[in-house]
Amino acid sequence: MAPAIAMVWRAVGRPPRGLCGPRAELLTEVRNLKLSRLCIAIASTTLSTLTLLGCQTATTPPADLVMRNGYVYTVDGQDSVQQAVAVAGGKIVYVGDDQGAAAYIGKQTQQIDLAGRMLMPGFVDAHMHPGDGGRALLLCNLNYEKMTRAQFQTKIQACLDASKDKEPNAWLEVGSWDRIGMASLDGDPDKSTLDALKTDRPIQVRSTDFHTVLTNSRGLQLAGISKATVDPVGGKFARDSAGNPTGICEDGAAETMAAKVPPATDAEKLTQIRVALDAMREQGITSFFDALSGAENAKAFTRLQQSGELTARATLALMLDPAEAAADPAKSIAAAKALAQTYDQGALQVQPGVSMRHVKLFMDGIINAPANTGALLMPYMKNVGTQKAPQWVPGDNLGELYYPAPVLKPLLLEAVKAGFDPHLHATGERAVRESLDGIAYVRQQLPGNAFRPAIAHAETVASADYGRFKALDTTASMSHQWAQQAPFSVDGTNDQLGAERFARMEPSGSIAQAGGRVAYGSDWPVDPLDELLALKIGVTRSGDPLNPHSYGPDLAGKLNAAPGLSRAEALRSITRNAAEQLRLDAAVGSIEVGKFADLIVLDKNFMQVPEEELARNQVLLTLVGGKVVFAKEQFSSLAPKALLSKATPALD
Does residue 462 form part of some domain? Predict the structure, then answer.
């Protein structure tokens, strides 16, 4: 007889009736005598011999999965740290120490020894563009590299040479162009840069920030863009001194140009989304917000969900058109509502599904040069000196505000009445203030309405507005990786913003210190998808010179002296806070009994490693609804054999 069983026998005062089949009877007797805690303690002291025995009882059904011997960072109300988690039916049924978890181990329970590694809630990415992210990985890709115009031409010519069968009429799409970096090296390109290439094909190049498209003369011709073309609401075509379009298309004009490229087929869209989901699994993303969606993405995500290929919870936002919204806000919202009712799958289930309950508004453009379309309270600075002897003085450009107050307020009111949560892109401080004013108006008009607004990016915020995020219960959905020195933040922004504004640029820490809720959104593919690098930057406000997605030793210092987030705040921003922004917090975002088992295991402990190592980490295991969707290294044996189904059902 095993010593531990003899101890139980002595404690119970009667002989055991056997083990396994009889073992279960013994443990039932222990429960009946209210000595289960003693059994658990004994099991703990002899874990090597009783791993499979546990202390399962008649009133404790066995779990499907027990993960033990870990650093379980729960992100609960106290940010408590535990040792073990038990999962049954895709939900968490136990969080606590190893001894307590033993009660959930049955004959069929799968056990994972975490070997001290950090287990935490899966990442909830609160602002990204997965369709575009997957697409970018499949296009002619400039890989976010800072390059001269000559290097730019060489890269694109190589893509043309590799696809000569597409001559002369198929569009060449080029992605991940670092426009800001190029402008800092040798100036902004125009259509002539592309016209010099050896091709007859129309070309369009999308900047990394997704606010600019560059096209060649053939592209302008096919799009019907000429000197007589009127700029669209919410955008503009750059023009030379004679008024002719240069090939640079900003914001709404970029979308006008992008729409001239034939849309992806259903099969191509599915491929793009599959590639995006694969990247997300590896990053530990278990829920995400598609911040610029529509029927095409909704259809693709729904088809993948029906075939069992959707491995993260999808929340989709419908973009509103400024011109349509200004003309008839009720009609604009009604159209969004009809589309949402087509694809929203209702109450959350353990299996990942599709939700569509947000509307997206672009309040402005970007604060970075050369675009400078983010809406500011005071003008951008301009150089009236020379490049070698610059003299920066206030100019006359305040940026672009695409939803003025008389349009924004009734539109937000209609959206909230229809049951939508508004998600507002605002990078400049004037756009942020107007967004907060619009939210305040709706709060006044609909007292007690529990809508959950979010302002995305908020790169510059007037210090007087920091506290308004808390006061108006509005989430600041921030992209932490922007709070590092980089061509887009240094070369493209500091002089144009001026010293005072640059000193408070990327105010995640300032908003958090004022009591505001800060969530994290990667904005992928505006940047490479690297969640752990972003979290590191959120804490330190500096990059990692060893990380290929950062900017090397020359730009390794802090962006400015503004405060960063604590490690706990950074992790909360990508878990509980992001879940709250997306109305997922009752089901995900923390490790608590009753919530879905959306969990990840990190190689290194984010709460304990030195600051410089925060980004030198990786996700080793990703579970969604208790199912493993990604595994590597010591957990590789747990990896699912097949994630993709051969057959994808058609939608009605």
Answer: yes
